[in-house]
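Lab meeting, item 3. Inverse folding demo.
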């Protein structure tokens, strides 16, 4: 039951917002008593933290699935962004990350530290493989570009209240990041990805 509550709470927080969803809302949605929820979670903040942990696992399972597809470095980045857009498309207009930072700053800080650690490893691997395959320039300072990109992405999401606008800017950031690193061959692959109907 605890895992079911965490999963349902996460879905509702993403769809309707961390602030607006109450314990009553979650209980009503699951057709259980609020007492049942409090059996596992003494307050909403604990449930928010557990649900963000659950969403973190889902996000990284999705990334690992895409990594296992062995796509080229540029296609991989666009595929991951596409999947994220699908995951967050049912969100209220207010960005979940923006809401988390505003209403639960301590939880947000933990999420960011964890995400930066894992995303750094993923970004570094992506750039290394892109260089090896000739899509990215050989002379790149890998660590600098890793830091540039995660700083840009996290800043964008935490300071943009609209999820729709955050996703639009994220696509612009991905194009900007890719163009800055790409060889002529990489630019051709980038243009191909930008023409993909799933790239919105």
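The presenter then showed the designed sequence:
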């Amino acid at each position: 039951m605890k895992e079911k509550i965490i999963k349902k709470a996460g879905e509702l927080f993403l769809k309707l917002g961390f602030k607006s969803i109450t314990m009553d809302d979650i209980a009503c949605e699951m057709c259980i008593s609020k007492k049942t929820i409090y059996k596992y979670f003494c307050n909403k903040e604990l449930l928010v933290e557990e649900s963000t942990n659950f969403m973190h696992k889902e996000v990284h399972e999705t990334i690992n699935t895409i990594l296992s597809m062995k796509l080229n470095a540029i296609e991989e980045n666009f595929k991951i962004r596409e999947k994220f857009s699908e995951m967050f498309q049912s969100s209220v207009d207010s960005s979940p990350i923006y809401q988390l930072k505003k209403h639960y700053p301590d939880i947000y800080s933990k999420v960011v530290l964890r995400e930066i650690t894992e995303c750094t490893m993923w970004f570094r691997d992506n750039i290394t493989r892109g260089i090896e395959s000739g899509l990215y320039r050989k002379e790149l300072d890998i660590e600098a570009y890793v830091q540039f990109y995660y700083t840009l992405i996290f800043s964008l999401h935490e300071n943009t209240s609209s999820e729709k606008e955050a996703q639009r800017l994220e696509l612009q950031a991905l194009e900007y990041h890719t163009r800055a690193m790409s060889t002529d061959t990489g630019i051709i692959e980038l243009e191909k990805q930008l023409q993909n109907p799933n790239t919105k």
